[in-house]
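Subject: mismatched residue count in predicted assembly?

I count 654 residues in my input, but I want to confirm that the predicted structure covers every chain. Input:
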Amino acid sequence: MLSGTASLRLCAALLLLFGWPGMSGGTGTTSEPDTQALLRRADRARGNERGVTWNVTVTSREREKEETLKFNISSRGFDLLAVYTAPPRQRNARLLMVNRNMWFHRPGLSKPVPISQRQRLLGKAAYGDLAATNYAEEYDATLLFEEALDGEWCLVFDLKAKTTRATYDRIHYWIARESGLGLQSRFFTLSGKAIKVARMEYENRILDENGQTQPFISRMTIRDELMGHSVTTIEFDSPGLKELPDSVFDLNLLTQ
Amino acid sequence: MKRRFHGLLFVPSLAGLLLVSGWTGWAAVRDVPLPASGALSTDLRATGFGLFNEPAVPRSSAVDVDRYEGRFELRPDFRIEYPALRLTAKPRLGLGYVERYSGPGDMYDTEAEGYLNEAVLRLSLRDELFLHGGRENLQWGPSQLVSLSNPFNPSNGRDDPARELAGMDFVRAVWVPRTMWALSLIANVGEGRAEWLDPRGPFERIYAAKLDYTGMGHYASLVGSIREKDDADATLGGYAGINAGEATLLYVEGNVPPETDRFQTLVGGSYTFIWSGMLSLEYLHNGGGARDGDLPPLPDMSCRECKELPEIPEVGAFARKNYLFLQYYDSYRDRTDVTVRLTYGLDDESGRLTGIVWHALNDYLSAFAVAHVEEGGEGAEFERILRGSITAGLSASY
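Triage response: the counts match. Full output below for your records.
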């Protein structure tokens, strides 16, 4: 028979579920300065609030050696599920990023293991580079200067992480004045040393919530600033808007 | 009566979950148009390895210790997927040769076996509600050493990556009302292929409720479980973790059984270096473990002439009270993974060092090697049965 202690424990667990205020899911909104609006606009071209799926190919080239990984990505807001599709030895490995918590699982590994955002994906790409950016929420931005980048006039911002959960401590971010797209990021260590620089291209097109076509990230090219030898490209193909349920990003359902 | 009561408790809990989740009946499932044929995906894997053990027991020991082992396993994974239905099956075909060093059995053995290690039918009743039934390896928690919050199988098999963990038979329902929350009701209804797993005796059903919370950069889970036996062995377990920076993870995992002084806790953390190597450090406190004294001696085969074999004392994993665990993992040029694990018993100062290397020869073929070295001495936990072992093998994927 179920003991009184056991009953209490189960009741407490259920009460916690049904009585917890976070279950209501309500969020407040505050007005944001123009800089924040610019960052939010740039963020929108690198993710989607309701859900987007795409295929990603990551290629690393270092001293004439080339390695390639391929994924199917399901992304919603800043949550992400990446399922490895190639090479065969990595197939069906999975990366889950939910609320900035990251878990990795591969066939043969008994359970998902937690990993940090610094964990490298391939070459100079971190797992965090696959996810949509949330610079508007995670960084304080200061305008440094304006300059032309490949013929496009850009506002260059100095981004400093507001919280420890951000992937990088400090970023210089080039946002095109006309299109509002983030064209280049330079990432720094805490001591101020540049780690790598990433160039973004936006050849993909998706329909936004209003039925308007908007540019969407198609390629990120990451160059190592410390060693200077490696180049890593992340190609984003076949983006499709798709409403993704919460269960896609649930750890209990990751391994089956 | 008590057995029936526990089993019946799971059924109304499941019905309550369906009700609360807003499930409107089987019609909702049937409304999802099933394609004429489901999408079938297949992963073919094959693994072959050779194992050499260096025993610490004498040849006359009653404990069954293998000296050499060779094994080949075909490990195909199949998945058929419909919009509301998913069937996964992991049948296995194994061929093995074992040469024993000690124990009552034959000194040589060959075996060929086919079995189903995992096979699960998953039904999506709604976008947020799932029913699973079948055989699976159910694991969770952030700990690298042992999953203390898992009442079904706390061993995560990380020390022996050449072998798969045995699947057990489960029925479970998972409800995900928000990204932040999930509730699972789990019934472990059969031991499946893990008949050797529990040193406490014959298999007993276990029923569990698992509540998961995922916050921004942190998470926590509570696991309440009841073992189906006369004295209602209810245990509360759980784990929690936090991202303490872009490179640092901190976590805790544990359980509190009815005899609360036998609680188990693990506190750990990991740090990812700028070159991507990951260092993990964990401390395990096992309330039920022995701080002092020798572990019971292993019987000899002096009773070869007897009609009954001597009883071998059951000593589960982590028989002592306090342990430190250190692990370093790194991946070189994205082709070679190296893991070094050290488990050290603070009470009897014995330990085990494990090195694991995986090297991708190409996109399809990997070579691996696993080496264990144990150091302990008389009465200590490690080096009680083995001094060490070496495993080397190949793994092919297609």
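The mean pLDDT of chain A is 80. Marking this ticket as 'not a bug'.
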